[in-house]
Amino acid sequence: MAEMLTDLLQNIYKRIAQLGQAIQALKSSLDGLNQNIEQKITNLNFKLEEFTKEIDITKNNHIDVLREIGEGTRDELKNLQVGLGLDALQTLISKLQEFEKLSEEVLNQETVNLLLSEAISSVKILKDQTPSKL
To answer: CB under 8 Å to 81, separation ≥6 — which residues?
Structure first.
């Protein structure tokens, strides 16, 4: 019976030793898996940083190109405007509008009546001052 008990205890110890080995193997496997995951995360972070830098560079390049296109277009439109005489036309329109306002002021009914009255008066005075030849 003591032998059976000894065998049983040895089997239990063997099982415990095997379980310890299995746990140790599992721990080693988990450590390797954790290390692999950490490496993948590090690589992913590095790639994300590179990707972010590329996006910034590309974005800035696109903004610079669009800015240059806009400035070039603006300059060309100014050249076209000058070439077509649009500035001179705008100035002419402005001066004509000023002339229109002045004409309205000068040709209002009161001014015309006053001018006609003065002209008629002057003619009468001249007529009175000239000797009649009859």
So the answer is: 87
- In terms of phi and psi (left: phi > 0; alpha: psi -120 to 50; beta: otherwise), the region of 85 is left
Angle, helix 2-84 to helix 86-106, in steps of 10 degrees: 60
Question: pTM of this prediction?
Answer: 0.43
Confidence category of residue 132, pLDDT binned at 50, 70, 90: low
pLDDT (tens digit per residue) in 13-45: 999 999 999 999 999 999 999 999 999 999 999
In the numeric block, the tokens 């009161």 are attached to 110
Residue 2 one-letter amino acid: A
Take residue 47 and report the two structure tokens written for it. 């790639």
Residue 52, φ and ψ in degrees, nearest 5:
-65, -45
Are 105 and 111 within 8 A, CB to CB? Answer: yes
Burial 21-42 (b: 16+ CB within 10 A, else e): eeeeeeeeeeeeeeeeeeeeee
